[in-house]
């Protein structure tokens, strides 16, 4: 049974990506990164999702990016609410080099476990804004993972799987629903007012809510603000 | 003045690489990674080196790799002493994907500072054993750094400078001595018996000691064991 190392943030996307990896037959180890995010309830969500999916090997690695700063998710910058539109600019919730850092730590875990398959829930709705969700970035990272590890020296090739890359949020919700993901356990909100409560107003909440509506799938989320 | 982000471990190599970056005219920001290494006096050495070189922006980012394990430098595995030879195998002091992880965090810092130049003290003596010191790895990483950052989206190219890559330890010592590096401030030992004291028996100490001898440069190091 091939092992895969999966990034699990506790959000809707990564929960779906983990379910994809299990359905594809991988033995899954999950990695969550505690990067000093303000919305720490993400990590609780990741633990719930791992348990619900039956992933026994779930590790949390602390990477304190606050010493670097530069993002509304780690620094004392307000998370934008009620934006008129979700545009093409890199949002201020972008954490500098986040996916590079997360995939690097995931590569370390993969190396220890003998896994050659890395799984990340990156998707098209993000890569309009976040540079490190672009397909060419993910391909280039797979090459780095191979070259930078013991396994790579021995000729192994690494793959970065991004099974949600070209899906809309509605497509992700449909896929996850068909795989039995319990989205009530996940947390997307950048600024949750309470555990398992979504603000309903930040970009992540708006994408999430619209995704369920468009997918025609029941939304189990509690939002603090009406649509 | 172009900015460079430099990995500074507190060892002989990274101190020399930082001095190279300063001599090359870069405005230098230094990054040390607290990765749960057992030899934490490395971080004290990094602080001393940064101060001595006049690097005002020195950040320590905590990345707790102990949750991943797999190395004598982070886990409860004995550091080898008095090995008959330093061979071609990947040593057990190899930290899984270490340089991938360090360079990823360095990319985050570079992004925040507007730097496009990453500097690492990787060298040939290491890359016989550590896969993530190989030149093709460093080239591939530069591509990832460009693709995974905001600056890259805007067309900037990143460079990973490894000015020591093809130098022997003696060559590094000669270069650093010519640049005025005070090696008494640096720490190479994997298992230092006291602050600023080198064991003299681990691979890192043996390479260091032999480097000074071969370079014909006075060795200011205190070793606990005779040569």
Compact description:
The structure is a homodimer of 227-residue chains. The first copy, chain A, is α/β, with parallel strands linked by helices.
Largest sheet of chain A, described in full? 5 strands, parallel
Instruction: Provide the domain count of chain A.
Output: 1
Quickly name the level 1 CATH class of chain A. Alpha Beta
Distance between the terminal alpha carbons of chain A, to the nearest Å? Answer: 44 Å
Q: Hey, roughly how much beta strand do the residues of chain A contain?
A: 5-15%
Uncertain residue ranges of chain A: none
CATH fold field value of chain A: Rossmann fold
The named CATH superfamily of chain A: HUPs
Succession of helices and strands of chain A:
EHEHEHEHHHEHEHE
Question: Oligomeric state of the chains?
Answer: homodimer
> Percent helix among the residues of chain A?
25-40%
What form of chain A results from the Cα inertia axes? Answer: globular
Q: Which chain pair has the greatest contact?
A: A-B, 44 and 44 residues
Any idea what the radius of gyration of chain A is? 17 Å
Specify the CATH architecture of chain A: 3-Layer(aba) Sandwich
Mean of pLDDT of chain A: 87
Q: What order do the strands of the largest sheet of chain A run in, or round the barrel if closed? A: 3-2-1-4-5
Number of strands of chain A: 7
């Amino acid at each position: 049974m091939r092992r895969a190392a999966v990034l699990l943030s506790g959000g809707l996307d990564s929960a779906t990506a983990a379910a994809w990896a299990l359905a594809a037959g991988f033995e899954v180890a999950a990695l969550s990164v505690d990067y000093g995010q303000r919305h720490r309830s993400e990590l609780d969500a990741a633990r719930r999702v791992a348990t619900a999916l039956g992933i026994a090997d779930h590790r949390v690695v602390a990477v304190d990016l606050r010493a670097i700063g530069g993002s509304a998710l780690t620094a004392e910058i307000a998370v934008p609410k009620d934006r008129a539109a979700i545009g093409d600019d890199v949002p201020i919730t972008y954490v500098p080099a986040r996916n590079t850092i997360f995939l690097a730590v995931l590569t370390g875990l993969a190396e220890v476990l003998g896994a050659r398959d890395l799984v990340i829930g990156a998707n098209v709705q993000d890569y309009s804004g976040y540079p490190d969700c672009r397909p060419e970035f993910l391909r280039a990272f797979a090459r780095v993972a191979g070259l930078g590890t013991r396994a790579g020296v021995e000729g192994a090739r690494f793959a970065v799987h991004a099974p949600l890359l070209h899906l809309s949020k509605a497509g992700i919700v449909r896929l996850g629903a068909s795989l039995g993901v319990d989205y009530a356990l996940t947390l997307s909100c950048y600024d949750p007012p309470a555990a398992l409560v979504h603000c309903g107003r930040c970009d992540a909440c708006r994408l999430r809510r619209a995704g369920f509506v468009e997918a025609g799938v029941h939304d189990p989320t509690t939002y603090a603000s009406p649509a």
